[in-house]
Design goal:
globular; 6 strands; 3-stranded antiparallel beta sheet; alpha/beta; 3-stranded parallel beta sheet
């Protein structure tokens, strides 16, 4: 609406279109971070070692923690060929036997109904559903902890949905079997 944004040498200038008169000028902050998959932490799980890593990032002046996909890996351990594009891997749980209530299952299904029942059917019923609720709890706690310390979590997504994954089995008409995608 009559404004143009120009970037030059890390600066941002907002000016009225067709003029060189800056309306405001600000310095874009530089940030940095670390890419580290959860499996590279001591124990390879959420919980204490993940919280300690957040503390280390904050103390080192880092603002970002980028993780690789968190889905159930394939037989070779690749997070990029996960058994689900939505489900998290049970192996990341710090407390895999934490209790899950019927109310939590209902609330989780309400929020994630587009995929969670298909995953549960594919991966083992109520236990698979409970694992997703446990993961959601632990992951959410880590996100809050990191946010309080000025560290933001960003992720990566699977490059493509793996053949014979829960998503492929449930919605085969959405996928092609005659090509392989990758970047």
């Amino acid at each position: 609406d009559g404004y143009a944004i120009r970037m030059r040498l890390g600066d941002l200038a907002l000016a009225r279109a067709g003029t060189s008169t800056p309306l405001s000028h600000m310095r874009l902050p530089r940030t940095s971070g670390v890419q580290l998959h959860l499996t590279s932490l001591p124990g390879g799980k959420l919980g204490a070692s993940a919280l300690e890593f957040v503390d280390w990032l904050a103390a080192a002046g880092q603002s970002w923690w980028q993780v690789l996909p968190l889905g159930p890996p394939n037989r070779q351990g690749s997070p990029y060929k996960a058994a689900s594009a939505f489900a998290a891997w049970r192996g990341f749980l710090a407390d895999p036997d934490a209790p899950v209530s019927a109310a939590e299952r209902g609330a989780f299904r309400e929020r994630h109904g587009f995929w969670v029942d298909d995953w549960a059917a594919f991966a083992g019923g109520t236990r698979a559903l409970n694992d997703q609720i446990r993961f959601d709890r632990e992951w959410s706690a880590l996100r809050v902890y990191a946010h309080e310390r000025g560290v933001r979590l960003i992720g990566d997504v699977p490059i493509y949905v793996a053949a014979r994954s829960a998503d492929h089995v449930r919605w085969p008409e959405l996928f092609r079997d005659d090509v392989v995608a990758g970047v």
